[in-house]
Amino acid sequence: MSYSTGSLRAGITALKQERYLEAINLLESFCYCCSIQESAPRRLSERNGSRMDPSECTLAQVALVMAYQRSGDLERSTALCQELLEQGGSSEADLWAQEWAAQALPTLRQAAEHYMPPEELMTRLPTVQQLEECQALCSSRDPALHLLKSANF
After folding, report:
1. Which of these CATH numbers, 3.30.70, 1.25.40, 2.60.290, 3.40.50, describes 3-149?
2. Which residue, among 103, 100, 104, has the nearest Cα to 138 in the 3D structure?
3. pLDDT tens, residue by residue, 60-71
Protein backbone atom coordinates (compact mmCIF):
# COMPACT_ATOMS: atom_id res chain seq x y z
CA MET A 1 0.00 0.00 0.00
CA SER A 2 1.41 3.39 -0.95
CA TYR A 3 1.68 6.27 1.49
CA SER A 4 -1.12 8.07 -0.30
CA THR A 5 -3.53 5.12 -0.11
CA GLY A 6 -2.56 4.73 3.54
CA SER A 7 -3.38 8.41 4.01
CA LEU A 8 -6.82 7.83 2.48
CA ARG A 9 -7.52 4.84 4.73
CA ALA A 10 -6.27 6.70 7.81
CA GLY A 11 -8.43 9.72 6.89
CA ILE A 12 -11.56 7.60 6.58
CA THR A 13 -10.75 5.85 9.85
CA ALA A 14 -10.28 9.21 11.60
CA LEU A 15 -13.62 10.39 10.17
CA LYS A 16 -15.36 7.25 11.45
CA GLN A 17 -13.82 7.83 14.89
CA GLU A 18 -14.98 11.47 14.94
CA ARG A 19 -11.42 12.84 14.83
CA TYR A 20 -12.43 15.41 12.26
CA LEU A 21 -9.37 17.68 12.21
CA GLU A 22 -7.08 14.69 11.77
CA ALA A 23 -9.37 13.37 9.02
CA ILE A 24 -9.29 16.74 7.27
CA ASN A 25 -5.47 16.90 7.37
CA LEU A 26 -5.10 13.38 5.97
CA LEU A 27 -7.79 13.75 3.32
CA GLU A 28 -6.56 17.17 2.20
CA SER A 29 -3.07 15.70 1.86
CA PHE A 30 -4.44 12.85 -0.25
CA CYS A 31 -6.48 15.25 -2.43
CA TYR A 32 -3.36 17.39 -2.90
CA CYS A 33 -1.49 14.32 -4.16
CA CYS A 34 -4.36 13.68 -6.55
CA SER A 35 -4.19 17.23 -7.90
CA ILE A 36 -0.41 16.92 -8.37
CA GLN A 37 -0.96 13.67 -10.27
CA GLU A 38 -3.53 15.29 -12.54
CA SER A 39 -1.13 18.09 -13.45
CA ALA A 40 2.00 15.91 -13.79
CA PRO A 41 2.90 14.29 -17.07
CA ARG A 42 1.45 10.77 -17.09
CA ARG A 43 4.79 9.18 -17.99
CA LEU A 44 6.50 10.69 -14.95
CA SER A 45 3.98 9.42 -12.37
CA GLU A 46 3.79 6.00 -14.05
CA ARG A 47 7.58 5.73 -14.03
CA ASN A 48 7.59 6.39 -10.28
CA GLY A 49 4.84 3.79 -9.77
CA SER A 50 2.83 6.40 -7.91
CA ARG A 51 -0.32 6.65 -10.03
CA MET A 52 -3.35 6.84 -7.78
CA ASP A 53 -6.67 5.38 -8.77
CA PRO A 54 -8.95 8.29 -9.79
CA SER A 55 -11.82 6.64 -7.91
CA GLU A 56 -9.78 6.95 -4.71
CA CYS A 57 -9.38 10.67 -5.40
CA THR A 58 -13.16 10.97 -5.78
CA LEU A 59 -13.71 8.99 -2.60
CA ALA A 60 -11.34 11.28 -0.70
CA GLN A 61 -13.32 14.32 -1.83
CA VAL A 62 -16.62 12.82 -0.64
CA ALA A 63 -15.05 11.93 2.71
CA LEU A 64 -13.57 15.43 2.93
CA VAL A 65 -17.01 17.00 2.41
CA MET A 66 -18.23 14.91 5.36
CA ALA A 67 -15.22 15.84 7.51
CA TYR A 68 -15.61 19.56 6.81
CA GLN A 69 -19.33 19.38 7.61
CA ARG A 70 -18.81 17.45 10.82
CA SER A 71 -16.08 19.84 11.97
CA GLY A 72 -18.48 22.74 11.49
CA ASP A 73 -16.87 24.17 8.35
CA LEU A 74 -20.00 24.43 6.23
CA GLU A 75 -18.44 26.91 3.82
CA ARG A 76 -15.68 24.52 2.72
CA SER A 77 -18.02 21.54 2.85
CA THR A 78 -20.53 23.28 0.58
CA ALA A 79 -17.86 24.51 -1.84
CA LEU A 80 -16.28 21.07 -2.25
CA CYS A 81 -19.68 19.44 -2.60
CA GLN A 82 -20.46 21.89 -5.42
CA GLU A 83 -17.14 20.98 -7.08
CA LEU A 84 -18.01 17.29 -6.91
CA LEU A 85 -21.31 18.00 -8.58
CA GLU A 86 -19.66 19.97 -11.38
CA GLN A 87 -16.68 17.69 -12.05
CA GLY A 88 -18.49 15.85 -14.81
CA GLY A 89 -16.42 12.66 -14.77
CA SER A 90 -17.89 9.60 -16.39
CA SER A 91 -16.46 6.80 -14.25
CA GLU A 92 -18.78 4.91 -11.97
CA ALA A 93 -17.12 6.49 -8.94
CA ASP A 94 -17.62 9.98 -10.41
CA LEU A 95 -21.26 9.30 -11.16
CA TRP A 96 -21.76 7.93 -7.66
CA ALA A 97 -20.10 10.99 -6.12
CA GLN A 98 -22.16 13.35 -8.27
CA GLU A 99 -25.36 11.64 -7.13
CA TRP A 100 -24.22 11.87 -3.51
CA ALA A 101 -23.34 15.56 -3.93
CA ALA A 102 -26.69 16.29 -5.60
CA GLN A 103 -28.43 14.91 -2.52
CA ALA A 104 -26.11 16.58 0.02
CA LEU A 105 -25.73 20.06 -1.49
CA PRO A 106 -29.25 21.43 -0.82
CA THR A 107 -28.98 20.48 2.84
CA LEU A 108 -25.50 21.96 3.18
CA ARG A 109 -26.63 25.21 1.56
CA GLN A 110 -29.68 25.41 3.82
CA ALA A 111 -27.53 24.79 6.90
CA ALA A 112 -25.04 27.46 5.78
CA GLU A 113 -27.78 30.05 5.22
CA HIS A 114 -29.84 29.30 8.32
CA TYR A 115 -28.57 27.88 11.57
CA MET A 116 -29.14 24.16 11.79
CA PRO A 117 -27.96 22.20 14.83
CA PRO A 118 -25.10 19.86 13.85
CA GLU A 119 -27.06 16.81 14.99
CA GLU A 120 -29.98 17.70 12.73
CA LEU A 121 -27.68 18.40 9.82
CA MET A 122 -26.00 15.01 10.17
CA THR A 123 -29.35 13.23 10.11
CA ARG A 124 -30.45 15.10 6.98
CA LEU A 125 -27.33 14.53 4.88
CA PRO A 126 -27.13 11.45 2.69
CA THR A 127 -24.96 8.81 4.26
CA VAL A 128 -23.25 5.88 2.67
CA GLN A 129 -26.07 3.56 3.71
CA GLN A 130 -28.67 5.84 2.09
CA LEU A 131 -26.87 5.68 -1.22
CA GLU A 132 -26.93 1.93 -1.83
CA GLU A 133 -28.64 2.47 -5.17
CA CYS A 134 -25.65 4.57 -6.29
CA GLN A 135 -23.18 2.02 -5.02
CA ALA A 136 -24.83 -0.65 -7.15
CA LEU A 137 -23.59 1.28 -10.19
CA CYS A 138 -19.99 0.94 -9.06
CA SER A 139 -17.68 -1.89 -9.90
CA SER A 140 -17.38 -4.50 -7.17
CA ARG A 141 -13.63 -4.49 -7.83
CA ASP A 142 -13.22 -0.80 -7.05
CA PRO A 143 -11.09 -0.65 -3.85
CA ALA A 144 -11.95 2.97 -3.08
CA LEU A 145 -15.67 2.31 -3.06
CA HIS A 146 -15.16 -0.72 -0.85
CA LEU A 147 -13.43 1.62 1.62
CA LEU A 148 -16.34 4.01 1.59
CA LYS A 149 -18.93 1.22 1.84
CA SER A 150 -17.14 -0.14 4.89
CA ALA A 151 -16.94 3.28 6.51
CA ASN A 152 -20.50 3.15 7.93
CA PHE A 153 -20.84 6.90 8.37
Report:
1. 1.25.40
2. 100
3. 899 899 999 989
On the CB side of 4, CA atoms within 13 Å amount to 21
Residue 127 burial (10 A CB sphere; 0-12, 13-18, 19+)? middle
The half-sphere exposure of 15 on its side-chain side, counting CA atoms within 13 A, is: 31
Per-residue pLDDT of 114-140, as tens digits, reads 877 777 777 777 664 443 344 344 444
- Per-residue confidence (pLDDT) for residue 61, from 0 to 100: 92
**Do residues 86 and 53 make contact, with C-beta atoms less than 8 angstroms apart?**
no
CA distance linking residue 24 with residue 144, whole number of Å? 17
The ranges assigned to domains in the chain are 3-149
